[in-house]
Amino acid sequence: MKKLNVIGISRGSQYSPNLMNSDAAIFNLVTRELQKKGWQITTCPEDLFEEKECHADVIYTMARDKRTIERLLQLEEQGTLVINAAKGLENCVRRPLTELFIQHQIPYPESFIWSTDQYFDKAFFPCWFKRGDSSAIVKEDVCFVESREQANRLLEQFKERGIKTIVVNKHLEGDLVKFYGVRHVGFFDWVHSRPDTHSKFGLEQINGMPVGYDFDIESLKKWSDEAAKVLGITVYGGDCVISADGSFKFIDFNDWPSFSRCREEAGKAIAESICYLTEEHLRK
Question: For the whole model, what pTM was predicted?
Fold first, then answer.
């Protein structure tokens, strides 16, 4: 393989609420795994990357800022391989994610898009209000809603923060499961999500302690890989709800999570996937 100009972009702290150290840990681990393979890498935080005129053969990135993603789209057009792909990062924003999941019949709660200018008159409780223009940055970006009065009060608060649209998800009863995957190398892991463990915003308390419903792990892996493919990302994670009958639906899906539960194995898998995609890219 020819000598490559490789850049790794770490996630900005504002996009790592309560998980800054964990996000940094998986990024650094992947960097070390690639260096073990002889890769020479320049790392850069995403807030500095936006300001630089960077050019590279390969970029692996945890970035989420819109300006960074716009720059990555430009670099892709010039021939740079970006992992996760910039378009995939755009698709992981809540509104396009919801629209793609519905379009491709990915297991997902009954959902719709709602303007914060519009009075909420749906009989759709309990449900979740989630900002439509990004992933959650602060706790107020994801709200459990139980009444019309509460719904319209929250809509006003979203509007005051400049958020024009929200995604409304029907609330699902069942076990919360957190999952992690890396496409192309077969990596997949999962764990029951409990209200007494550390999480981004502590919202697991709504569903309570898991019962332990049986479900088909291979089916979850298959649909998780398919959902990631639909979004256009390689490194992914998320949350789903397992119902009493063993069926599941995704309630959250993210580009490149922190992999806190399985960091060592995931770091190796991500590095392997980057190598695989780079070899494929160079063959084209």
Answer: 0.92
